[in-house]
Predict the structure.
Amino acid sequence: MVQTKTELLSTEIKHLDIKKYNFADMIDSMGDTAFQARNLSRAAQIFDMMLKDKQCGVILCLAGSLISAGLKQVILDMLENNMIDAIVSTGANIVDQDFFEGLGFKHYKGNPFLEDTKLQELAIDRIYDTLIDEDQLRICDDTICEIADGMQPRPYSSREFIHIMGKYLQDHGKDKNSIVLRAYEKNIPIFVPAFSDCSAGFGLVMHQVKNPEKHVSIDSVKDFRELTQLKIAAKETGLLMIGGGVPKNFAQDVVVAAELLGEDAPLHKYAIQVTVADERDGALSGSTLREACSWGKVSVVHEQMVFCEATIALPMIAGYAYSKGSWKQRAEREYNNLFATTETVA
Amino acid sequence: MVQTKTELLSTEIKHLDIKKYNFADMIDSMGDTAFQARNLSRAAQIFDMMLKDKQCGVILCLAGSLISAGLKQVILDMLENNMIDAIVSTGANIVDQDFFEGLGFKHYKGNPFLEDTKLQELAIDRIYDTLIDEDQLRICDDTICEIADGMQPRPYSSREFIHIMGKYLQDHGKDKNSIVLRAYEKNIPIFVPAFSDCSAGFGLVMHQVKNPEKHVSIDSVKDFRELTQLKIAAKETGLLMIGGGVPKNFAQDVVVAAELLGEDAPLHKYAIQVTVADERDGALSGSTLREACSWGKVSVVHEQMVFCEATIALPMIAGYAYSKGSWKQRAEREYNNLFATTETVA
Amino acid sequence: MVQTKTELLSTEIKHLDIKKYNFADMIDSMGDTAFQARNLSRAAQIFDMMLKDKQCGVILCLAGSLISAGLKQVILDMLENNMIDAIVSTGANIVDQDFFEGLGFKHYKGNPFLEDTKLQELAIDRIYDTLIDEDQLRICDDTICEIADGMQPRPYSSREFIHIMGKYLQDHGKDKNSIVLRAYEKNIPIFVPAFSDCSAGFGLVMHQVKNPEKHVSIDSVKDFRELTQLKIAAKETGLLMIGGGVPKNFAQDVVVAAELLGEDAPLHKYAIQVTVADERDGALSGSTLREACSWGKVSVVHEQMVFCEATIALPMIAGYAYSKGSWKQRAEREYNNLFATTETVA
Amino acid sequence: MVQTKTELLSTEIKHLDIKKYNFADMIDSMGDTAFQARNLSRAAQIFDMMLKDKQCGVILCLAGSLISAGLKQVILDMLENNMIDAIVSTGANIVDQDFFEGLGFKHYKGNPFLEDTKLQELAIDRIYDTLIDEDQLRICDDTICEIADGMQPRPYSSREFIHIMGKYLQDHGKDKNSIVLRAYEKNIPIFVPAFSDCSAGFGLVMHQVKNPEKHVSIDSVKDFRELTQLKIAAKETGLLMIGGGVPKNFAQDVVVAAELLGEDAPLHKYAIQVTVADERDGALSGSTLREACSWGKVSVVHEQMVFCEATIALPMIAGYAYSKGSWKQRAEREYNNLFATTETVA
């Protein structure tokens, strides 16, 4: 049953539109059951509490492969409706997947049983049950390189670089339904603390190799400094964390960083994590939010772990809060305005 | 049963010394059983194959909390006996835990049932069943700041910065049993691609805030460039990955990066991953090494996933290879010599 | 914060009513996304296919603590609407939880952080985040003993015994919303292959100790024989399995048993399993449905594993099929009529 | 790469012999590390404590596929050296795997990537990475039928039936290295509370269908009664549980059953569970031993969960206790003598 590249890349992933459905009552009812349904219900209610709380800035943390998995529209809907004020993410979500789609490329439905050596020959990359045209990913790399080539050579935070990527999509993007673009338009900062760990890394390595003396660099300290600045400005904050990894740690850490800078930043007042990771291996991704309390990062009053895979849990949590409508009273925060606008393009 | 801080921080974690034990025959025998014992056995044998293969450079990837968990000596033994030629790690392992112990501080045995709000009041940080004196961690942050204050203001790779941390420990360290120190002495590069995501981030943010105009920055692109350079120089490579996250992705990606730079770098010839993460959520940490083959990163000939928690699996894999002794024929690679020695201290 | 028994047992678990919600379109849309959302979508569609297939008998397998977790009404709705023709379950669900509620008792919301030694003193039993009054559970045990005391002393299948429990609830039950009662009324067989492994075991041990010579016994072979007989009569079958364990294995095995009896029973044509268990430990609960194909039990054409906790996944799968309405064309099967009606009560 | 049945069934699983290795010091040292290594160490030490405690009867609980996975010799060594006084198991381990090997059949190394439809055609059954000749399994079924045909028609406990299987192996077995045989010879009871849920079920269904009026039946209540009787006689008890499922629940429940019979049976004094199951789905298999305390089953003083796959953890726990040698002072308990010797063979 040999398939060609065209056959393998024939069925597109379609992004789920939570605005079409209202299941808020069901999620409230799940609060009277048990186990993860009850946890999911409480998490959704805490997210809605964050949005009701006028003082609270909301930070969305993204790890895993969420955009390729069809969750882009869920995140866009949260951005567009002022449900999210900042994003901290892995590079894959923002560059390889969202920016990639912004360039007009797509993700395709596959399955986990395909033969990977065969896919390699066909230049198809697999993410569990999803497929990507590797040649298109190379164009994405090249585009990053091209963007960097046009920038003033100096250290940038990933946030600054992603802002410029948003500008690029505004000018040249083919799919306007992009998180990077929408965040650019709405002045919402996106941080990718391990920015080289994705297609951006490939593009920027090419840029630096071409320009060995003077080039763009990505200063991960600046990212941390800016996110800390945001925390100090926001005061009260809530975290909606999908997966763990660097985004989770990075976003939690800013409370401590603010304190070290002599600022009186409160613990994250609300915290939700959706994950299937396990606390029993002692790794950060599965560590409980209670454990984060010992570190002085997260308050235990409104925290909830949900042990559920994100493609199921995120639409339900976001859809719940969308249906509830508390976001309608929220102002845009445009946290990007906190940071000096430097002339970044040569 | 209220405990004081002194009582809580009374029993030190002790690092396991695999050199004392020889269980290689048992691990070979496990290869004739099934499930994860068989996988563990095959992983140990593949690690020994890497060491026998004179052409193969070995990269150790570290995620999770391994040093605090008593695995420092296992890693030191691998460094000292030329079983490892480069390290890619999360910041926690290298800075918050190894460098921290190099400064003379310790980790302590606790348990997962302690009350975290109480720990917070006592300034004790918890990692599952392990405890840290938060005041000592602040000294670690300050030390990073102090080191940065003494450096020329420019972008550095994390590898460069960690090399300077090694020099610091040589001069000022209190516990000479340190990965950062030993890697410094043996010219073994350590990369931390998300360098701000740990105590180093706290120290460097303080440094940058104190020095807003001219300061040290950490260029994560340079890290990627250097590791790619290492891959190109090494040609054949093997990965021993403990946990997933950024180190796994970063180390796998260099094959593609080398290709993009027009260099003919082969797939990673050997690859082992020890993890409890699950492929079924589509995230990178649990993604199979076969999946990495579709991306053109890892060969499927000698790859093995071991689904086991690292404190059990790593001593067995490392201890097996130590007992087998193939490392005795290996030369030091001193990959740090690949990179221009720039004057880094002001 | 010491709580009394009354305080701890104050908030009842309420059973989720899927009939109130229609999220079928969302679940269809999830089929165009990835990972477990896509798997959940396909599982829901396969369940609807089973119901559309007039030739197909549907067997529901239940493991884990589902009734105490608020899923009783979901299962009742499937029974009442001819979406399920037989049940294979662990004893906890059927006796300790459903029959227990039939006697008028309740489950209560707790949390996983309660102190278990304290609960033991208060005679409160904990299931993760759910609480039970142990004194009421003892009444449940006694009721089983009392029922057995009134029966003819001979070996029974668990199905026969549970049928008599249904009669008991019809006569004496306080909560008519019971799976055991509804199955009795609708002639739907319920099998509990490890019948002693629950409150029924306690009651029956008391019965046998009181009646050492002549007593009721539970013949697990008879269960297997009857379920095989059902499979032979049903011909085409589909499995909706929640959790793994004995019910999963038992229900899959009947295909082989039928073959051994010289009957030409087809593989289970449809199979769904909702679980968080992992195939990597080689245990049955997490073993894939593809693996079951090697055993000649399950066809791989319409099979789907969903890696999601049941309190979230089952309402979505059952609710989807309820909304679709294919069950409206299904006839009652009353499989209990397959089995000789023996006079069972003394 | 099509393989024949002979090629696929060519490499035998070999049972690990823990008596050859001494890694007790390493396991003690793991107690000073963290996470699962520390848990494993404590579990091994608790097992040794059970053996030192002259008052304590030791019950081994087995779930999952352990014998096919090469752990038979580990269990045999525990039986032969009085480290175990009773076994509660799933049927697969005892009948399909141990008794099957006693008849002279073998398990073979395979891998999880074989095509299951192809295996089905070849009559090869797969357990994750292990293969079985289905034709030989049918001989095992037939042997059970033949044994039952020769027995007096009446209800038996699974323990009684397995005892007779041991006698059969003594007379007719081809591989004397059998758990069923050794337990028979040493008067150690083996309970399989869901006895039909395995090859025994197939054989006994054939027996009952051939003998519709008068036949052997398996009374699961009698099993529970006998195990309760054992608990009452043993007084102090310890549980070594590999996996969860019915054996875990059944063995824990006897404390409650004894109490219901008016006997003063203490909580299980020691309890160890090796599992990869997760408490977060509320199912029994992953429920903590602390939770079992709320049910009045297990004391929390000496209990330890080890989250590790059994093929790795069991040899280490059993090997530790074997090396320590506390078993040398233990007397045989021959708990089978507690139960009336009835003439069971026609």
User: Anything to note?
Assistant: Residues 35-52 of chain D form the longest helix (18 residues). The mean pLDDT of chain D is 96. The first strand of chain D starts at residue 57 and ends at 62.
